[in-house]
Structure formats: C-alpha cells, structure tokens
Design goal:
The chain is an alpha+beta fold. The protein is built from two helices and four strands. The protein has a domain at about 25-90. It has helices at about 1-20, 30-40; strands at about 40-50, 65-70, 75-80, 85-90. It has a four-stranded antiparallel β-sheet with strand order 1-2-3-4, covered by helices on one side. The N and C termini lie far apart (about 55 Å). Keywords: Membrane, Transmembrane, Transmembrane helix. This is PepSY domain-containing protein.
Amino acid sequence: MEKKYFQYFMLVPIFIVFFYLSLPEVTFNQARHNLNEQYKVDLIEEYSVPAYREDWDFFGAKRSYFFVGIQDGEKVYFLVSANTGKVFKVDGRYP
C-alpha cells in the first residue's frame, strides 16, 4: 500500500514541472507595457489570439497577444509573442 502512495506522490512534482515549463515567458500585461515603452502607442484594442503552428509542441507558443493602437494619427497593429516577448508590427487586423 505504501508503494502505491509513493508512486502517486512522485507524479505530483512531475506535473508541477510540466505546468511551469508550459507557462508563457511574457504575460499579457508585460507585453502591453513593453509595446508601450518601445513604440509609444495609444492602445485602443487588445486581445489574445491563437498561434498557428504546423507541428504540435507542448512547450511551443500557443498564444500571442494582438494590439491595435494609434501612433502619429494612424491605426497600427502589433503582434507580441508570448514565448519570446518579441514585438511584430503587422499590416492589418488579425483575422
């Protein structure tokens, strides 16, 4: 009986490690702050979008952050990678 409990107890740290490793590197609020610092944009719309990948990867990006803002009187669009925090200026609205 004790051996059975030990086996289950050993699974808990494994699940915790996998959960921690699957978290994004950059949170939504951090992405918003970095974008505002880097581009000085007045944000008018923001949301999380799915990241499309051909292959499935447990630790790969599953979400990105999409922002619409006003910069110098023009509407601008940005995509921020949740895994790397890299900011991409895109041509238009995310579909």
